[in-house]
Every structure is written in structure tokens, then in C-alpha cells.
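Sample entry (165 residues):
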Amino acid sequence: MKALFIGRFQPFHNGHLDVITQLKKVGITKVIIGIGTHTKGRTLKDPFTYEERVALMTPVLETTGMRYAIYNIPDINDPPHYAAHVEKIVTEMDKNTILVSGNPYTYDCFNHKYWVFMPPEKETVHATQIREWIRNGSEWKKHMPKETASVLEKMSAGKLLKGLK
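Predicted structure, serialized as C-alpha cells:
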């Protein structure tokens, strides 16, 4: 079985990894990551490009032992047509795909067409807070897989975030 995990992943953190771990425990053998993107340029809410987020996730996904694929899902700001938009991009979706997202609104966009997996949230710190900690130089690494933290340091994420509004 496979699961489509849709999110912004700004940045990928322990909560995201925990979801993937839970998917593996329930028998999912492949995770399809759908990264939501926009064309507005870097903002404090969306500081990392699609390519940077792939770089943040790939080393961690390699450690999970699960097969994976990563897709760029450009925002269309058209909820009634969002599911069809995603299905055009992620052509490997079928009736056996399980939908995973941290946003219940996403489930509504798919109009209950797929099975839904809503794992219990164990990481209570969200990406918004993590970005703020990185920006301010506070302790943030404990909320990240070590592979992600290493990539963030190499890309000077703190300096990048300080320059954004």
C-alpha cells in the first residue's frame, strides 16, 4: 500500500518523520510526498524552495527503509479543483492510496475519494515555531531529524530567515 502525504514541510521536522514512521507501522510500503509550493518568492511563512525542501527530506527518507517519491504540487488556490490538480501531477495515485495531511481542509478538497490516515500528533511544536527559533538562534535542532538539521546549517537557514518578512 502507498500513502500520499501532502504538506508544505517548511521545514521537515520530527512531527513529519513521526507520521512516516506511523505509516510504516500500519503497513504502508511507499510514501508519496506532495510538497505544496507557490510562486510568490521567499517569505517567512514559506522560506524554502521546493528544491531545498527536497534536500531537507531526502537524507531522512533514505533512513526510513520505505520506498518514496517526491512531487512538486504548485498551489492553484482553487479548492474545488485541487484534488484533480494533484491527481494530474501524482499519476501513481489510485483507489488504494491513503491520503495523509496535517490540514483537515485538504481532506475536504478530496471529497472523501481516498482513505484517510490521521495519525495522532506527537510533535507539539509546529514549523512556524521552529522557523522562529532558527531565525532567532534559539534551540531548534531537537525538533529536527539530525540529517535535516545538518542541511539547514549548511544552507545558513538562520541567516536566510533573518532576512525575510
